[in-house]
Automatic annotation (TrEMBL):
<dbReference type="InterPro" id="IPR014002">
    <property type="entry name" value="Agenet_dom_plant"/>
</dbReference>
<dbReference type="InterPro" id="IPR008395">
    <property type="entry name" value="Agenet-like_dom"/>
</dbReference>
<feature type="domain" description="Agenet">
    <location>
        <begin position="2"/>
        <end position="71"/>
    </location>
</feature>
<feature type="domain" description="Agenet">
    <location>
        <begin position="74"/>
        <end position="130"/>
    </location>
</feature>
<protein>
    <recommendedName>
        <fullName>Agenet domain-containing protein</fullName>
    </recommendedName>
</protein>
<dbReference type="Pfam" id="PF05641">
    <property type="entry name" value="Agenet"/>
</dbReference>
Length: 140
């Protein structure tokens, strides 16, 4: 498990109904003991004050460093695991097909839905394992 300090840019994984498997950009405000952090989200806002960023305490298991940018010279291929930016967060899915020169259809297993995205809203999916970033291809 990684340890974060105030000001670190991170992503928080949601396990809430309707948001399972999504990641949200946040900044660590402070650490609470060994098992939780207070974070301020970059794209999520409070319900009471729509201009105010949401601040929340999250379990340490739900937080990871901000992933590095991965540039793919040839784009994505069928069944590549990707993160698609939608509804203010990153959602894990698989490329199901390409549309034109710059759009990809992404299938989300959890929700059994396929949605087209422009390539600028996609990134290669990486997992944070034992303190380092790995792709699914490296894990196999």
């Amino acid at each position: 498990m990684a340890f974060f300090k105030s000001g670190d840019e991170v992503e928080v994984c949601s396990n809430r109904d309707g948001f399972v498997g999504s990641y949200y950009s946040a900044t660590v405000i402070k650490k609470h003991g060994n098992d939780s952090y207070e974070v301020q989200y970059k794209n999520l806002i409070t319900e009471d004050e729509p201009h105010r960023p949401l601040i929340e305490t999250v379990n340490a298991e739900e937080i990871r460093p901000k992933p590095p940018k991965v540039v793919l010279a040839s784009g994505f291929g069928s069944n590549d695991v990707v993160d698609a930016f939608d509804n203010d967060g990153w959602w894990v899915g698989k490329i199901s097909r390409k549309k034109g020169s710059d759009y990809y259809y992404v299938f989300f297993d959890t929700y059994m839905v396929e949605i087209p995205y422009p390539s600028f809203r996609l990134r290669a999916h990486l997992d944070w394992v034992n303190g380092k970033w790995v792709s699914l291809k490296e894990r196999v």
